């Protein structure tokens, strides 16, 4: 009884609608579009791409000269100080100095050579940006497959609720018929009690199915980036409710054999390509660290001016050009340590690639096994549904004619309901399995 009350409360909270609520009906494509627009996980991946673009711009800036300008002004407060100068024991009193001092300068600097660190940094930024883009694409596909499978869960729950309601209505009609038979003295009171107990079970099954539907909707809305308590419905026509043998054969031809599927996954999956880009970026990091052992050659040019008066730029200004070469001799093992760390990081990413390859092979294998099981479920549930329908029709006819027992009729009715639900579950499980196979192969659109 407590469980029944709890389920009733949860269902009323999840399914409760006020008179003024507007219902938004989503198709599968609309759910995917909303999720790709509002899902926070995908938005975070987009920010990683923007960060990578900024890093690429910064790396390109190393090919350009740096320019700087400065201006200065100072005023001596104690103008009397420093007027007396002692030269060879003779004290000379100078005139009052100018209290103001002005300065201007402009300097341009360009790196001619830095051990190819500039080129490696730009290449590293390109690879990191490519990896971020591939990670974004993989996250995008992951969200799509999540929306698809959760949408199938909602549709399955919706049809389960419908079947449970139909079963409940049939139970009510049967109870009314049994009561009429009891009033006519044709059946004992125990038959009425048995039918009432069966009706209570059907009511509980309806309540459980409605609660499962509310939870499935909440999960889907959350993945879409929408409030889980949003008043929304989902169109059943977005997904086919039948699966033919030709559909199964066409999909099998599309994905190919398991070895071919693995080759497709290693070629098409975005996470694999992202990791390859990160390995190349790690190799660039080794080149950057190696550049610390080579000399740095830079060219500098500029103009400077200083005077106690704002005038005479031509007389007191000067131009200069300089070439500097810095040769590293010993930096307290800083460069060696940096290079060692870069090499170790590259080796770690190579190990990550081996691990990801095993993961991809496992996911492809699991997806194929799931598809195999889903195809078998389609065949089994189709045969079971036909048998349950025939058994129910026969049991109902025998019970109405008085040749069969109520237990046989109730058992056949329950079997038919379960067969219908199992058939619906098998259809949507097959659709979900197809989506997960495409996701494992990296071909999910």
Structural class: alpha+beta
Mean pLDDT: 89
**How is the CATH topology named?**
Outer membrane efflux proteins (OEP)
**Rg measurement, Å:** 39 Å
Highest CATH level, the class: Mainly Alpha
| Main pleated-sheet profile | 4 strands, antiparallel
Overall 3D shape: elongated
Helix content: 55-70%
The domain count comes to 1
Report the sheet-strand fraction. 5-15%
**Terminal residue distance:** 47 Å
How would you spell out the order of helices and strands?
A: HEHHEEEEHHEHHHEHEHH
Uncertain stretches of 5 or more adjacent residues: 1-20
CATH superfamily, by name, is Outer membrane efflux proteins (OEP)
Number of strands: 8
What would you note in describing this structure?
The protein is α+β, with helices and mostly antiparallel strands. The protein has one domain (22-66, 113-296, 332-441): Outer membrane efflux proteins (OEP). Helices cover 67% and strands 13% of the residues. It has eleven helices and eight strands. The protein has helices at 2-15, 28-38, 40-61, 117-183, 189-223, 245-255, 258-268, 270-290, 313-316, 334-401, 406-441; strands at 24-26, 66-75, 84-87, 90-93, 100-113, 232-234, 296-307, 318-326. The strands form three sheets. Strands 2-5-7-8 form a four-stranded antiparallel β-sheet. Strands 1-6 form a two-stranded parallel sheet. Strands 3-4 form a two-stranded antiparallel ribbon. Strand 3 (84-87) and strand 4 form a beta hairpin. The two termini are 47 Å apart. The model is unreliable at 1-20 (pLDDT under 50).
């Amino acid at each position: 009884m407590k469980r029944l009350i709890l389920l009733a409360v949860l269902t009323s909270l999840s399914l409760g609608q006020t008179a003024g609520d507007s219902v938004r009906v989503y198709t599968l494509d609309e759910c995917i579009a909303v999720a790709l627009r509002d899902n926070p996980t995908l938005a975070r991946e987009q920010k990683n791409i923007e960060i990578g673009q900024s890093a690429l711009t910064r790396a390109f800036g190393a090919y350009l000269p740096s320019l700087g300008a400065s201006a200065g002004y100072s005023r001596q407060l104690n103008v009397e100080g420093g007027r007396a100068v002692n030269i060879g024991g003779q004290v000379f009193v100078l005139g009052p100095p100018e209290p103001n001092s002005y300065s201007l300068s402009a300097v341009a600097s360009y790196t001619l050579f830095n051990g190819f660190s500039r080129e490696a940094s730009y290449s590293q930024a390109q690879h990191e940006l490519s990896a971020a883009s591939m990670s974004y694409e993989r996250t995008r596909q992951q969200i799509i497959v999540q929306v698809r499978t959760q949408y199938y869960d909602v549709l399955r729950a919706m049809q389960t609720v419908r079947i449970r309601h139909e079963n409940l209505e049939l139970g009510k009609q049967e109870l009314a018929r049994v009561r009429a038979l009891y009033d006519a003295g044709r059946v004992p009171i125990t038959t009425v009690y048995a039918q009432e107990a069966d009706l209570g079970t059907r009511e509980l099954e309806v309540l459980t199915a409605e609660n499962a539907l509310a939870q499935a909707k909440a999960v889907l809305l959350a993945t879409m980036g929408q409030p889980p308590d949003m008043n929304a419905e989902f169109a059943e026509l977005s997904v086919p409710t039948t699966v033919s043998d030709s559909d199964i054969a066409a999909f099998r031809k599309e994905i190919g054999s398991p070895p071919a599927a693995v080759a497709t996954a290693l070629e098409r999956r975005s996470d694999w390509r992202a990791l390859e880009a990160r390995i190349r970026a790690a190799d660039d990091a080794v080149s950057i660290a190696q550049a610390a052992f080579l000399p740095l050659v830079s060219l500098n040019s500029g103009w400077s001016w200083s005077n106690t008066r704002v005038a005479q730029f031509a007389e007191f200004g000067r131009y200069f050009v300089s070439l500097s070469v810095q040769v590293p001799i010993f930096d307290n093992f800083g460069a060696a340590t940096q290079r060692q760390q870069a090499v170790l990081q590259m080796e770690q990413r190579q190990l990550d690639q081996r691990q990801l390859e095993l993961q991809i092979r496992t996911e492809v294998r699991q997806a194929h096994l799931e598809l195999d099981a889903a195809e078998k479920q389609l065949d089994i549930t189709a045969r079971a549904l036909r048998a349950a329908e025939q058994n129910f029709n026969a049991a109902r006819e025998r019970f109405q004619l008085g040749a069969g027992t109520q237990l046989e009729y109730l058992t056949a009715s329950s079997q038919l309901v379960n067969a219908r639900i199992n058939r619906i579950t098998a259809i949507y499980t097959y659709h979900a399995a197809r989506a997960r196979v495409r996701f494992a192969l990296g071909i999910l659109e």
